[in-house]
Amino acid sequence: MCGIVAYIGPKDAVPILLEGLQRLEYRGYDSAGIAVGTKNGGIGHRKVKGRVADLAKALPARLKGGLGIGHTRWATHGEPSDENAHPHLDAAERIAVVHNGIIENADELKDTLKGRGVEFRSETDTEVLAHLIAAAVAQGGELEDAVRRALREVVGTYGIAVLDAERPDRIVVARNGSPIVLGIGEKEMFAASDVAALVRYTRQVVHLDDGELATIRADGFRTDTAKEPATLEVEPVHYDRAGFEHFLRKEIHEQPAAVGRALRGRLDERFHTARLGGLNLDAREIRGFRRVKVLGCGSAYYAGQIGAQLIEELARIPADAEPASEFRYRNPVVESDTLYIAVSQSGETYDTLAAVQELRRKGGRVLGIVNGVGSAIARECDGGVYLHAGPEVSVASTKSFTATAVVFALLAQHLGRLHDLSPADGRRITEGLKALPGQIAGILAEEERIAALAAEYVRYPGMLFIGRVRGYPVAREGAQKLKEVSYLHAEAYPASELKHGPLALVGPELPVIAVVPDDELLDKNLTTLGEVRARRGRVLMVGHRRTDAADDVLLVPANEPELDPILLSIPLQLFAYHAAVALGRDVDRPRNLAKSVTVE
Ligand code: HGA
User: Fold this and answer.
1) Which of 30, 323, 338, 459 allows an S-S link to 80, with CB 3.0 to 4.6 Å?
2) Annotated catalytic, 2?
C-alpha cells in the first residue's frame, strides 16, 4: 500500500516518476504527487486527489529536474485530498518527504512541533516527518544524519524517500516495516516500494533491511550494511495487461502457466514426493513437528486453510490456519514442536511480517510461502518455498491464491511421505498435480457461461457461500473475491452451520453459492441444498456432477479429492470478475482496497 518512487540521474525525473507511479498504482490510488529538485536549486512539487493520470494532467510543463520523489497514496490518516497527498514539505520547502506506513506518535509530535510554531497543512501523520527532518537539517551536518536523528523521535512504520533542496546530489531513503528497494542503473539510481516501478530501467536491485537507511546518488548508493545487488528475473511485460481489459482477468488466465511454474522441478517421481529445496529442514527435524500452524491475511489466509487441510489429510499432522493479524496480537504460545508457515503474496504484508518476527523472537520455526522474491518475509523466515506465480498486479488475488494452494499440496505431500503417506498415494498426488494446468485451462474455457450466470446473479443484493470441509475455504475465498470486486454483500459459512443461523436469511432474495465436491460428504451437501430450495433460495452449485438439487451448476473436472479445492476455486474467480464487470465496477482498483498491505 502506498507506492514510493525516487530517481536521481542525468535524465528528467518527471516522466520516470510518473511511469513508476503508474506501475505502483495498484498499491494505492486515492491521490498522487511528485517533488523534483529544480535547476534553480529549489523544490517544485504538485500533488492531487485522484489517479496518477490526474496528476500527469495537472503537472506544469516547467516542472523538470534531475532528481525527484513520487507517491501514490492509500490514506490512513486524513481523507484523500490535495493537501493530504504526498509529498509533504516543511514550511521553507527545503525538505520533501514521501512515506508508506503509519507514524503512531504523530499526534504527540504534532503538539510538540505546533508548540514550536510549526503550522500544519495536512491531516496526515506523514507531515510530521517533513518538519522533524527540516528541524534536524537546520542543526547542521549531513542529510543522512539529520534523517536518522528525526527518525529516532518516531514510533511506527515507514518506508520514506527524502529530498533536500540544498543537497541536490542525493536522495535519502529508509525503511522500518514498509518495503524499499534500490534500483541500480547506468549513472542513475532509483528507489521504490516495489520492483514493479524499476523493471523498465534496471534488473539490478538491492533490498533494504528493516531499520536501514540508504543514500542514492547518480553514481551509486550507500547502505548501512554491505549488500550484493540481486538480479530481477521478471520482465516489464509482466506488468502490462497484454491485451486483456483488466489485470484481474489476465491473471486468472495466467493460472495454468503459474501452476506449471510452481510445480516445475519440484515433482520427485522416483520417490513419489516433492522436492522443495529451500525448507532448510532435514527429515528428522520435519518428523519432530507435532503440529502445523499456518498464518496469513485475506486470500493468503484462505489459501492457508486449504493448505492446513492438505497437511492434515496427507501428513496426518494436526494443522490449522489463523489470520496472522489476530495471531500477532494475542500473545501466542509458541511451541518448539510446531512448524509455523507464513503465507503472503507480496512477502511484505505487515501483519504477517509482524507475526513472523514475534515467532522468531520466541524461537519458533517459520517457513514462508511467498511470491515476492527477496521480500521481507522471505528474508525473515528460516526457510520456505517461492510461488513463482509471476508478478500479481490485480488487487484481488487469483493466481497467487492458486499457486499457494499448489505449493501447500507439494509441502503436504513431502511431509506425508516422511510420515505414513504410501508411495501409491504419493504417486496419486503427483499425477493429480500434473493434471492441474490442463484442467484449469479447461475451466477457463467455460468463461462465457460463467459470465452469463454472473450477469444474472448480480440482480440479487448479496449471496451466501457455503461449503463443507474441503469446500469451506473455497466458499470463503469465493465470497471474498465477490465482495472485493463487485461490492455485493457476500458471506461464507460452513454448509453444516447454515441451519444454526444464516438459513434465516435465505429466500428468493438471497441465493446460495454452494461448493460441492464429489467426495464422501456429497449426500450431506445435497441435503443442505434441498433445505435452501425448500425456502425458495436459488442455488448455484460448483461441483463435479449435474444435480436437480441446484438451479444452476458450474462443473469442474474431478482430480484427486485432496486437490479438489484448487480447481473448485477457479470458476468462482471468474464469477466474481464478471459480476464486477456487469455492475460496471473498477475491477483493478476496487474501492477502499489496495495491494500489498504494508500497514497494520
Ligand atoms: N500514513 C500515510 C501513509 C499511508 C500509507 O502508507 N498507506 O499504505 C497517509 O495516510 O498518508
Assistant:
1) 30
2) yes
CATH number, residue 283? 3.40.50.10490
Residues 600, 594: Cα–Cα separation, whole Å: 13
Q: Which residues line ligand 1 (CB under 6 A)?
A: 1-2, 28, 73-77, 99-102, 124-126, 598-599
Is 114 known to be catalytic?
A: no
Provide the number of structural domains found in the chain: 3
The answer to whether residues 525 and 400 belong to one domain is no
Q: How far is the CA of 102 from the centre of ligand 1 (A)?
A: 6
| Model confidence pTM above 0.70 | yes
Distance 117 CA to ligand 1 centre (A): 25
| Same domain for 457 and 385 | no
**Which of 238, 261, 285 marks a domain boundary?**
238
What whole-number distance in Å separates Cα of residue 126 and Cα of residue 362? Answer: 32
pLDDT values of the chain reduced to their tens digit, one per residue, 600 residues: 899 999 999 999 999 999 999 999 988 899 999 999 987 789 999 999 999 999 999 999 999 999 999 999 999 999 999 999 999 999 999 999 999 999 999 999 999 999 999 999 999 999 999 999 999 999 999 999 999 999 999 999 999 999 999 999 999 999 999 999 999 999 999 999 999 999 999 999 999 999 999 999 999 999 999 999 999 988 777 788 989 999 999 999 999 999 999 999 999 999 999 999 999 999 999 999 999 999 999 999 999 999 999 999 999 999 999 999 999 999 999 999 999 999 999 999 999 999 999 999 999 999 999 999 989 999 999 999 999 999 999 999 999 999 999 999 999 999 999 999 999 999 999 999 999 999 999 999 999 999 999 999 999 999 999 999 999 999 999 999 999 999 999 999 999 999 999 999 999 999 999 999 999 999 999 999 999 999 999 999 999 999 999 999 999 999 999 999 999 999 999 999 999 999 999 999 999 998 878 888
How far apart are the CA of 103 and the centre of ligand 1, in A? 9
C-alpha–C-alpha distance, residues 480 and 492, integer Å: 8
Structural domain containing residue 495: 446-600
Cβ-Cβ contacts under 8 Å for 347 (sequence gap 6 or more): 368, 370, 371, 372, 373, 374, 375, 376, 377, 378
Residue the block writes with cell 514521501: 98
The active-site residue, picked from 49, 293, 483, 595, is 595
**Which of these three, 205, 238, 271, is where a domain ends?**
238
Cell of 521: 460428504
C-alpha cell read off for 549? 438439487
DSSP 8-class letter at 118: P
